[in-house]
Design brief:
This protein is of the alpha/beta class. The protein has 2 domains: 203 residues, Enolpyruvate transferase domain (UDP-n-acetylglucosamine1-carboxyvinyl-transferase, Chain); 206 residues, Enolpyruvate transferase domain (UDP-n-acetylglucosamine1-carboxyvinyl-transferase, Chain). It contains 13 helices and 24 strands. The strands form 6 sheets. It has a 4-stranded mixed beta sheet. Strands 2-15-17-16 form a 4-stranded mixed beta sheet. Strands 4-5-3-14 form a 4-stranded mixed beta sheet, with helices on one face. Helix 1 packs parallel to helix 7, helix 8 runs parallel beside helix 10 and helix 8 runs parallel beside helix 12.
């Protein structure tokens, strides 16, 4: 079990080059198998989730080569349509492959996906969208069996603006004859990135970033070269770290338009924020002030993936903050660990009340999911004494060499 050992109390200074977005790369990899041509994707982060996606693709007969932050994907010999339990349980985003595999093979067998245990995250929205496309779906013994021999374009109305279901609907429809319209679509920037990627491959998709997406089916797609978008969640985590510890940091490659919900709140917590193109300059001006209310919502609202890091900031801010988690029902697993460090937090269902304390104290804590683990690292950077964050493998799912990033900014952190 790998762990991070953090000696807190250091302010952060320097520059961070923002990694490629995990939540964009995984659906891009899924989309890459929609053509027999080679696809080249740049800005691919070094993450365990990416490694797991590559294992799944190779299991399907896809050739994937990595050259630093570049991936070359060749699906010309795609020969499988099954994602077994052993692979699917490691990666929630394996569900993205369902739409792509169906488009290519007209059938699929997918084990129920895994990932972080942060809530039910039901896939019924995905299944309903596929059934709207006239896909025969059967669920049995932990697997989803799909037959798409009678695929047909249609209008899909999602019961909830699910990011994954929106992306699956798009991936299922790009090679389907006719026009498909997705209503109540999710609006996240990663969906815009997927649309841009598919369009470069020859697809006809419009409306990403709005609640209505239109897909005009084409016969084939071709290879392309594409630069994946920067990771707005990683950038937001590092911005919160500066607000929490103090210091001055330049986020190189961060896009302000993707981070408005967070930056508007950080600007009220004693931070100066200057945005210039794809660079964001964060300067802390002393002890932060609590944000009275944080409510997670689909984009463009406050992202659930930044709820835990933002809560870590509120534990050492002046005042009281009230959080409402509207996306996942089990996303307060980091609360008990923060309380071990001296945080004053009370939860009731989806609500958490945080009263800022003068300081946190380093101790041994356990990461139990990706973003909660990141929150504990931030708390360790601020805490007095030494903090040991165990089970850091969860954090490795979404942050590229996080200890090296913070060390480059002056923090005392090492992996053991």
């Amino acid at each position: 079990m790998e762990k991070l050992v953090i000696n807190g109390g250091k302010k952060l200074y320097g520059e961070v080059k923002i990694q490629g977005a995990k939540n964009a790369i995984l659906p891009l990899f899924a989309a890459a198998i929609l053509t027999d041509d080679k696809v080249v994707i740049n800005n691919v982060p070094d993450l365990s989730d990416v490694d797991n996606m590559i294992k799944i693709l190779k299991n399907l007969g896809v050739k994937v080569d990595r050259y630093g932050s570049t991936a070359v994907i060749d699906a010309s010999n795609l020969c499988g349509y099954e994602i077994p339990n052993g692979l699917a349980k490691e990666l929630r985003s394996s569900i993205f492959l369902l739409g792509s595999v169906l488009s290519r093979c007209k059938k699929a067998k997918v084990a129920y996906p895994g990932g972080c245990d942060i809530g039910l995250r039901p896939i019924d929205i995905h299944i309903k969208a596929l059934r709207d496309l006239n896909v025969e779906v059967e669920e049995s013994k932990g697997y989803i069996y799909c037959n798409a021999e009678n695929f047909k374009s249609t209008e899909i109305s999602l019961d909830y603006p699910s990011v994954g279901a929106t992306e699956n609907a798009i991936l299922s429809s790009v090679l389907c004859k006719g026009n498909t319209v997705v209503h109540n679509a999710a609006c996240e920037p990663e969906i815009v990135d997927l649309q841009n990627f598919l369009v470069k491959m020859g697809a006809k998709v419009t409306g990403a970033g709005t609640s209505v997406i239109k897909i005009y089916g084409v016969k084939t797609l071709h290879g392309t070269l594409y630069d994946a978008m920067p990771d707005r969640i990683a950038a937001g985590t590092y911005a919160i770290a500066v607000a929490m510890t103090g210091g001055t940091v330049l986020l190189d490659g961060a896009r302000y338009q993707d981070m408005r919900a967070l930056l508007s709140k950080l600007s009220k917590t004693s931070c100066n924020i200057i945005c210039n193109g794809d660079k964001i300059y964060i300067k802390s001006n002393g002890k932060p002030v609590s944000v009275p209310k944080i409510t997670t919502q689909p984009h463009p609202g406050f992202p659930t993936d930044l709820q835990a890091p933002m809560m870590a900031l509120q534990t050492v801010s002046d005042g009281v903050s009230i959080f409402t988690e509207n996306i996942f029902e089990n996303r307060y697993r980091h609360v008990g660990e923060l309380i071990k460090m001296g945080a004053d937090i009370v939860t009731n269902g989806r609500t958490a009340v945080i009263k800022g304390v003068p300081y946190l104290t380093g101790t041994e804590v356990y990461a139990q999911d990706l973003r909660g683990g990141a929150a504990l690292i931030l708390a360790g950077l601020k805490a007095e004494g030494t903090t040991i964050v165990k089970d850091v493998r969860y954090v490795d799912r979404g942050y590229e060499k996080i200890e090296e990033v913070f060390r480059s900014l002056g923090a005392e952190v090492r992996r053991e």
